[in-house]
């Protein structure tokens, strides 16, 4: 091949969809011989040692994103408390990294169950640095969190408020409470991840919030500190946040004009991440909007990011099991399926998929249906333009650090995948691949 032909070929390959996806993700790089690397570690080497499917996480990406979040606000004079949404990824190693932080200031936790509370505590996060959210808190969960010194309950209803008051009074404790307000804001995104509309199960209707706050301030065992809101996930514009915050700040102003004590405003989370090579959430514009709206109000701010922090820090490494050609479509079948990553089946989510092998990546694209091995028609990742991948070829499913492993299951009796954390160039096994006999380890056959 002459020089001009080589340049044309290189330019053509750089224009392939998988190259654009990789170029948009700093932790991913090509190596001429080793193929795709993650934090400079060849993914093929990880597959050879730990097998597939496997979850791979970048510690550097986690630290960098947490630091970016903190410095973006600090630059404009705000220091909101960061409470990571544990539901996005509850692995102890991930929680520990976020607790430590990237610049010496770590994140706390937003938890929604006794299990998440216990996991966060096991990772070293102090209960005082936790927010307890969720519509279905049980009495025993409330009592345990209160006894441990929980930093804040985000209360979802009048009924829950009464329950917390009774439990706190009986225990001779004071529960710090913020009322979660449903501002009736449609923030876009998938219907199943919208949480701030009047028809959603979350929060207290805006028109009832003032009266309930007055009531909370008089209840025994309750220290009413303010309000919280969360309007959904995968939001890419500050506009719906601003609309929601306006409504709640108006509520705060009116109550404070009556003499109410309000010290806290929990802004929630929901910042979107591009699963393609698109435009990222405008974090700077969001922070500036918050600064402008808050003005000179003396409020302690909290934000609850989940996906934004951890999704770009994780990938799902999978191997092609076989290919199948039909008159209707060509199928590329992976050893990872909806039991590993359910988001495509549940939310119609589309994750970027890229080849790992250097030779594969140098081949021209062709359309193929990427599917998994699970016995369900919904076990489908989507239609992609990828090189012709032979059995044994590796692929990386991108931005899988959030709502990936934490939502995985053993459906079809498929063991849970291994998890590996890359930290300072060294891969660490942080969860072993589940042995098949562990699938029924806790099952009991009653004797007649």
UniProtKB/TrEMBL annotation:
It holds the Pfam family Orn_Arg_deC_N. Its EC number is 4.1.1.20. It catalyses: meso-2,6-diaminopimelate + H(+) = L-lysine + CO2. Residues 64-311 form the Orn/DAP/Arg decarboxylase 2 N-terminal domain. Its cofactor is pyridoxal 5'-phosphate. The modification N6-(pyridoxal phosphate)lysine is found at residue 87. Pyridoxal 5'-phosphate binds at residues 270, 304-307, 403. Homodimer. This is Diaminopimelate decarboxylase. It comes from Acidiphilium acidophilum. The gene is lysA.
């Amino acid at each position: 091949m002459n020089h001009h032909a080589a340049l044309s070929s290189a330019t053509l390959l750089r224009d392939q969809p998988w190259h654009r996806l990789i170029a948009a993700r700093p932790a991913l790089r090509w190596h001429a011989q080793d193929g795709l690397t993650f934090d400079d570690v060849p993914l093929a080497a990880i597959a050879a040692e730990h097998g597939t499917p496997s979850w791979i996480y970048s510690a550097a990406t986690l630290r960098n994103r947490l630091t970016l979040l903190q410095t973006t606000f600090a630059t404009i004079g705000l220091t909101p408390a960061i409470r990571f949404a544990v539901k996005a990824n509850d692995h102890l190693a991930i929680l520990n990294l976020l607790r430590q932080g990237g610049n010496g200031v770590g994140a706390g936790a937003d938890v929604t169950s006794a299990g998440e509370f216990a996991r966060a505590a096991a990772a070293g996060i102090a209960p005082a640095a936790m927010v307890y959210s969720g519509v279905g808190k049980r009495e025993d969960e409330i009592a345990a969190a209160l006894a441990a010194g929980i930093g804040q309950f985000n209360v979802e209803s009048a009924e829950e408020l009464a329950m917390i008051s009774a439990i706190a009074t009986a225990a001779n404790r004071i529960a710090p409470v913020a009322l979660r307000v449903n501002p009736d804001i449609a923030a876009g995104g998938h219907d199943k991840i919208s949480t701030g509309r009047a028809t959603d199960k979350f929060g207290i209707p805006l028109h009832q919030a003032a009266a309930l706050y007055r009531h909370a301030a008089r209840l025994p065992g309750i220290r009413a500190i303010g309000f919280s809101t969360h309007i959904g996930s995968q939001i890419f514009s500050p506009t719906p946040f601003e609309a929601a915050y306006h409504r709640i700040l108006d509520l705060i102003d009116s109550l404070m004009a009556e003499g109410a004590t309000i010290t806290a405003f929990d802004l929630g989370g929901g910042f979107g991440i591009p699963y393609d090579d698109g435009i990222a959430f405008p974090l700077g514009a969001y922070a500036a909007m918050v600064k402008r709206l808050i003005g000179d109000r003396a409020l302690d701010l909290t934000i609850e990011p989940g996906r934004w922090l951890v999704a770009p820090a994780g990938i799902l490494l999978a191997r092609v099991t076989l290919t199948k050609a039909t008159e209707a479509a060509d199928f590329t079948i992976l050893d990872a399926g909806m039991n590993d990553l359910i988001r495509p089946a549940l939310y119609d989510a589309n994750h970027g998929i890229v080849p790992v092998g250097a030779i594969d990546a140098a081949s021209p694209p062709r359309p193929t249906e990427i599917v998994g091995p699970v016995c369900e028609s919904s076990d489908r990742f989507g239609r992609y333009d990828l090189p012709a991948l032979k059995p044994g070829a590796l692929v990386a499913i991108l931005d899988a650090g959030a709502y990936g492993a934490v939502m995985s299951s053993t459906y079809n009796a498929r063991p849970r995948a291994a998890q590996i954390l890359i930290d300072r160039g060294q891969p660490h096994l942080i969860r072993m691949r589940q042995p098949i006999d562990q699938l029924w380890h806790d099952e009991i056959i009653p004797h007649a």
